[in-house]
């Protein structure tokens, strides 16, 4: 999965069959977007996406196992509505294997996921934790590294490091990550 800044009308720029079949959520402006490439032998199919360049969910099949892959590019500001909409979509689905990844634009625990104090809008909202609990997802980084500090983003403006790019998965999938 990759963030893009390609307008929806320019989606053809993302087609690259050597990488895999592309699934994308793009916005009208070049402000945000995401693309996911999946090899055709995994029989990928799109389950849902938004039209704002922030969310896409794709199913893959490996043998008899189906896995839902959810890619996100969360908003920088308030996230309650974004995660609320995602939660409503997930309620209708039943998957034993889930991979949930992307740029969450917020931290789970400011004490270990950020080098400086954070504003509340830089934390993921409570509804996010509700999704994680309901889907029984594990933070892959924390499962392996405990409370170690490492970061995925540096803000020059705030002179701080944060862990905002994350991967969550069901326990059954942890060994595959």
Unreliable parts: none
Strands, count: 11
> Helical amount among residues, as a percent range?
10-25%
Strand adjacency order, main sheet: 4-5-6-7-11-8
State the helix count: 4
Distance between the termini: 14 Å
**Which sheet architecture does the biggest sheet show?**
6 strands, mixed
* Classification by helices and strands: alpha+beta
Order of helices and strands: EEEEEEHEHHEHEEE
What's the alpha carbon Rg, rounded to whole Å?
16 Å
Strand percentage lies at 25-35%
Q: Which descriptor suits the 3D outline?
A: globular
Mean pLDDT: 91
What does this structure look like?
- The chain is α+β, with helices and mostly antiparallel strands and 177 residues long.
- Helix content is 18%, strand content 33%.
- The strands form three sheets. It has a six-stranded mixed sheet. Strands 1-3-2 form a three-stranded antiparallel sheet, with no helix packed on it. A two-stranded antiparallel ribbon has the order 9-10.
- Helix 1 (80-91) links the parallel strand 6 (65-73) and strand 7.
- Helix 1 packs parallel to helix 3.
- The longest helix is centred in the middle third of the chain and has 12 residues, at 80-91.
- It is globular, with a radius of gyration of 16 Å.
- The two termini are 14 Å apart.
- The mean pLDDT is 91.
Entry keywords:
177 residues; alpha+beta; six-stranded mixed β-sheet; 4 helices; 11 strands
């Amino acid at each position: 999965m990759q963030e893009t800044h390609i307008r929806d009308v320019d989606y053809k720029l993302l087609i690259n069959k050597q990488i895999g079949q592309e699934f994308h959520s793009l916005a009208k402006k070049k402000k945000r977007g995401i693309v996911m490439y999946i090899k055709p032998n995994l029989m990928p199919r799109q389950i849902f996406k938004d039209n704002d360049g922030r969310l896409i969910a794709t199913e893959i099949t490996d043998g008899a196992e189906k896995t839902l892959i959810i890619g996100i590019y969360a908003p920088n500001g308030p996230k309650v509505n974004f995660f609320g909409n995602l939660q409503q979509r997930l309620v209708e689905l039943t998957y034993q294997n889930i991979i949930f990844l992307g740029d969450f634009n917020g931290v789970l625990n400011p004490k270990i996921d950020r080098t400086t104090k954070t504003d509340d809008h830089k934390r993921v909202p409570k509804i996010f934790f509700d999704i994680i609990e309901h889907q029984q997802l594990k933070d892959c980084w924390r499962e392996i590294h405990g409370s170690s500090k490492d970061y995925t983003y540096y803000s020059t403006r705030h002179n701080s490091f944060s862990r905002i790019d994350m991967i969550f998965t069901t326990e059954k999938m942890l060994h595959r990550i």
